Amino acid sequence: MTIPFRYFPYLVQQLVMDHMDFIDVFSLYFASEKSKTLVKSFFNRQECELIYDLDTVKPRILINKRKSLENYHYKTRNQVAIVPKLHAWKHVYLFCSFMTIETEQFQITVESCDDMYKGLMRFVRELFPKIHFSFEFGPSPLEVIRRNMRIAKALNVPIERVKIGGKYWWKETIKEKRMRACLKEYSDVKTLIVNVSPSDFQYDFQTNPPFKFDLFKLSAARWVTKDHLINLFLGCKKVYLRDYRGMSYTELELMEICEKWLEAPETQYLGIQFSQSFSEGIGKLPGAVPLREANADYPCFGHRMKLDPGKGYMMKKADGTPAIVYHDRSNIVFRTDFENAVVDGTF
Q1: Backbone phi, then psi, for 122, in 5-degree steps?
Q2: Hey, where are the domains in the chain?
Q3: Which tens digit of pLDDT belongs to each residue from 102-141?
């Protein structure tokens, strides 16, 4: 015997919707006024992420369930694309599932709006009180970036992540004004990813405040000297620096970077990629014990590391937190997020 969905107890309805494909929950929202009220209560407790992706041929907005970010298969069922279009002289929002991104599944007509993406962000904000915004700006001009950031702040939505630069970052260039604006104007986002930098970029670490990001990824980072790194980056929780031309620090500079990183309580991870050098002098720092093995994720992808002699050390940060420093392939890594370390000697 089939039981209509509306006859289920409220908690059962919420549990069922939690296991439905996200696109089907949206279709239920627009089915009737009663179902709209029910789904709205479901949306009220969802911590979702809006991704405004301009790094594509056609800009699109994606809605992700937060937990779907951890699993690709789950993500395919829990991501919805919403595309604003002008259809038959009417403004409409097309709703598509992740798997049928180019296939319309259903649409709704909306009031006329000079900026349909602005209207769409407002629409999503009203649906999801706990939503966060993320922007994939790609090579967008500075005025486009600033306009969308202003819209998000006007809607009083936390900005989770901003990504500047396209997929082929090593082929792109960026003007110094745009680069400087990225570093100065987006200091309140949690994650900043900058995939390009001017080849001759200059940034004064004495007159600019230190960064405070949860995660900061910077490509084309050769302009980051030892003094830049120590004075600007060690207030972030996690930092990834890379440059396809190679990052160059002397042995004494790496030792000083290590000492300052150990003194910085905020920084949990510092990765310097595409660096061919590793300071053996790090092993001479007070409390350093040779490291043989440890479990850690990126850049080892969860595998157990086995290090050659002189390639890794275990030590303690100033607040007593255990830490490891090691050279893996072409990466020098300083981190506190590891497990099951094996050392030579007593730690």
Answers
A1: -65, -40
A2: 1-45
A3: 555 667 776 655 567 788 888 889 899 999 999 998 888 8
